């Protein structure tokens, strides 16, 4: 099996002649401002909030102008690798934290340690787990915008009807493995015509849920700490136990093979939904009666699954100190705009912003913000994206009943071995 990073390089090498559509903007505007090209992969409400931040930056000063460029999510990283290899990449780009080690290993990003000091950006201002996720081989290569953990959404009208809300309007969940399952079983008994949990039988949300349970059970990292030559350190026994726990929900409170969990929840046909915090802005806009809560700690360890949107500075063979500083000033501005970015539902990357009264006054967000410090980010290896595919596919087989948890986790380990060798 060809690793993800190798596939990207192969595509990049084969696509250099097709880059006429990726031309960079002019270096300056007609009025002499430094002009920067900023690539994003956001959709839906996320995009509009980021557009507002960029507009605010452009209006805040008269020396730098940023063009926001939306790229299609499905082939975003392929386009990014290809364009940077051809020296036609963006000046600043969004990257998920999980992808950062692969981009760094390919030599596509600028280390930010010195540049951050020039503009007064201090990485110690970010959550500690985010600081660690931004470092590859001892250098910072990205600035975090947020954390977006896996959380629980509950339809409050349905929960009230089922008698499962407390006096503060929050779900009454006993934070034990049995209590969590019982919560949804009680909802299903009270609301037999409603879906207990809107989540697909397979895919990323099941992977996120399994990841949460695995690490709450005390699971070890998936890989050893080695960028290009890791060992698999996944705890097979705990991995099986976590998959077995999830399996109890399927076919009972979770119907098999649900086609559109989001539509199911938004239409009022589902009691709850488990997904990332980006749903908050969606349900607000839809004026849905809901509450958003952290995934409860059901086992011994405080742990949550989540990712982070980050900003990177792709390399350019010809640039100037002035342009590099301009890029860093923009990155700093966006990282400081956590309150505006939080409107989409994401948790700001700086505790200072999360603890501010302005953030605490925002509905829903403060209810789950505490989980940010517990997010277990992916390992620093170039194989993470391929590994995620391996793990997701194995979990799909387990939840669909085609493999037992023992068989599925063994398949997961076998596939991971193939991926990294």
Automatic annotation (TrEMBL):
Biological source species: Alkalicoccobacillus gibsonii
Descriptive protein name: Extracellular solute-binding protein
Pfam families: SBP_bac_8
Key words, A-Z: Signal
PROSITE patterns (UniProt xref): PROKAR_LIPOPROTEIN (PS51257)
Transmembrane portions of the chain: none
Record Gene3D superfamilies: Periplasmic binding protein-like II
Signal sequence range: 1-23
């Amino acid at each position: 099996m060809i690793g993800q990073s190798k596939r990207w390089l192969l595509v990049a090498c084969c696509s250099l002649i097709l880059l006429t559509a990726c031309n960079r903007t002019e270096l300056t505007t007609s009025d002499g401002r430094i002009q920067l090209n900023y690539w994003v992969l956001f959709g839906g409400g996320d995009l509009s909030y980021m557009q507002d931040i960029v507009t605010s930056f452009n209006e805040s000063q008269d020396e730098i102008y940023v063009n926001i460029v939306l790229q299609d999510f499905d082939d975003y990283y392929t386009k990014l690798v290809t364009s940077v290899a051809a020296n036609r990449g963006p000046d600043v780009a969004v990257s998920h934290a999980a992808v950062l080690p692969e981009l760094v290993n390919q030599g596509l990003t600028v280390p930010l340690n010195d540049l951050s000091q020039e503009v007064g950006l201090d990485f110690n201002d970010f959550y500690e787990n985010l600081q660690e996720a931004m470092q590859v081989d001892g250098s910072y290569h990205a600035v975090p915008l947020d954390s977006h953990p896996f959380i629980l959404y509950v339809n409050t009208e349905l929960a009230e009807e089922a008698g499962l809300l407390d006096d503060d309007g929050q779900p009454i969940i006993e934070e034990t493995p049995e209590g969590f399952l019982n919560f949804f079983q009680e909802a299903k008994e009270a609301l037999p015509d409603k879906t207990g949990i809107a989540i697909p039988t397979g895919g990323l949300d099941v992977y996120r849920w399994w990841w949460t349970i695995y690490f709450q059970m005390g699971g070890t990292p998936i890989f050893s700490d080695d960028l290009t030559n890791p060992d698999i350190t996944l705890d097979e026994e705990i991995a099986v136990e976590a998959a077995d726990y999830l399996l109890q929900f399927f076919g009972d409170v979770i119907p098999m093979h649900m086609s559109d969990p989001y539509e199911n929840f938004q239409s009022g046909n589902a009691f709850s939904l488990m997904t990332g915090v980006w749903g908050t802005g969606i349900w607000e806009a839809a004026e849905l009666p809901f509450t958003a809560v952290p995934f409860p700690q059901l086992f011994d360890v405080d742990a949550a699954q989540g990712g982070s949107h980050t900003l990177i500075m792709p390399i350019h063979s010809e640039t100037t100190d002035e342009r590099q500083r301009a890029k860093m000033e923009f990155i700093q501005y966006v990282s400081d705009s956590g309150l505006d970015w939080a409107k989409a539902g994401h948790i700001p990357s700086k505790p200072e912003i999360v603890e501010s009264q302005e953030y605490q006054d925002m509905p829903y967000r403060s209810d789950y913000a505490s989980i940010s410090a517990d997010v277990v980010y992916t390992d620093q290896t170039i194989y993470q994206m391929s590994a995620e595919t391996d793990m997701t596919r194995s979990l799909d087989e387990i939840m669909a009943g085609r493999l037992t948890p023992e068989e599925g986790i063994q398949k997961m380990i076998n596939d991971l071995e193939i991926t990294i060798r």
